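1st attempt posting a full record on here, be nice pls
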Amino acid sequence: MAEDYQVILGELAPCGLDCSRCARYGGGEIKKLAAELIKRLEGFEKAAAKIGDFVPALKGYPQFREILNFFTQADCSGCRYGEAPFPLCAAKTCFKEKGVDFCFQCGEYPCERNRFHPELHDHWRHSNDRMKEIGVEAYHQEQKKKPRY
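the predicted structure (as tokens):
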């Protein structure tokens, strides 16, 4: 059964990155899971302090908790619907100007408007070439099976 295209647009950025699995995405799993873990570990800082001498890894619990708190503050709505923190990405505005959902759908793709560093440029090209090859829905399903980072 084909996935709802609007759901896909909510999760995939115009450049092809999967916003839904990003640590900064406000509606993502990382934010939800971090909040759930904080809830389940409520009061654990006392236990971590007591047994830190026996379990050295727990000496870092305050920093771990700080990282979890950071993840719960995720508030990015993605390039498609808000202002994402990617100043070198032209796709976040270009897709609207060109009237496309993804870069590969533009007649000028691949263009030189994005000023990505080489690794991200290669990822952008691979993502869009892959969507063009197998379709947006299949690409979205494929992304769900891969780690985000």
